[in-house]
């Protein structure tokens, strides 16, 4: 087995990186996948860590991460061609590339999403600024605020710490008339 050294500056054990790359819903997925694709030119090595479907679903965010590295911008064209070929193959097999856009939210989710937006706005931050401070992508923050991404307790703790806002998790029950 060849030595895995593409992740040298992530300050994370390889086992943890593999766990993150196995879950495309992890907020760190795109950043770490972008680092992987920026540094590894071998599709076999990449697709041993990321499923082709996850790669295609999250390609836009991954591509943005690759472009952040000045030294590896030329790899974007290679991975874009790989994305186009793979997405076509997967669609021909009937596999769904895009996540469904319909999001069903209950009252608690709606109230919690509104509280997240209020925290961000009270701290006078844009989604992009909040994402940078929290170590996420702007797309992830947008996903949180639209209900496409799940809000975790870790996210709420970090949000409260960074925005210096208190987050009240009580939800008033709507009265039925």
UniProtKB/TrEMBL annotation:
SUPFAM superfamilies found in the cross-reference section: lambda repressor-like DNA-binding domains (SSF47413)
InterPro entries: Cro/C1-type_HTH (IPR001387), Lambda_DNA-bd_dom_sf (IPR010982)
Any single Pfam family the record assigns to this protein: HTH_3
Residue intervals of the HTH cro/C1-type domain: 116-170
Source organism superkingdom: Bacteria
Annotated GO MF terms: DNA binding
Protein name: HTH cro/C1-type domain-containing protein
């Amino acid at each position: 087995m060849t030595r895995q050294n593409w992740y040298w500056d992530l300050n994370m054990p390889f086992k943890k990186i593999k766990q993150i790359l196995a879950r495309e819903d992890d907020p760190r997925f795109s950043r770490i996948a972008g680092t992987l694709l920026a540094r590894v030119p071998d599709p076999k090595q990449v697709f041993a860590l990321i499923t082709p479907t996850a790669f295609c679903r999250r390609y836009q965010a991954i591509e943005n991460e690759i472009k952040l590295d000045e030294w590896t911008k030329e790899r974007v064209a290679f991975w874009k061609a790989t994305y186009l070929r793979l997405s076509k193959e997967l669609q021909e097999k009937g596999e769904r590339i895009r996540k469904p856009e319909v999001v069903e939210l209950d009252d608690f989710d709606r109230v919690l999403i509104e509280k997240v937006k209020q925290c961000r706005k009270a701290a006078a931050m844009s989604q992009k600024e909040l994402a940078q401070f929290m170590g996420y992508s702007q797309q992830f923050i947008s996903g949180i605020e639209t209900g496409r991404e799940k809000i975790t307790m870790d996210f709420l703790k970090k949000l409260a710490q960074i925005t210096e806002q208190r987050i009240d998790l009580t939800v008033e029950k709507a009265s039925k008339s």
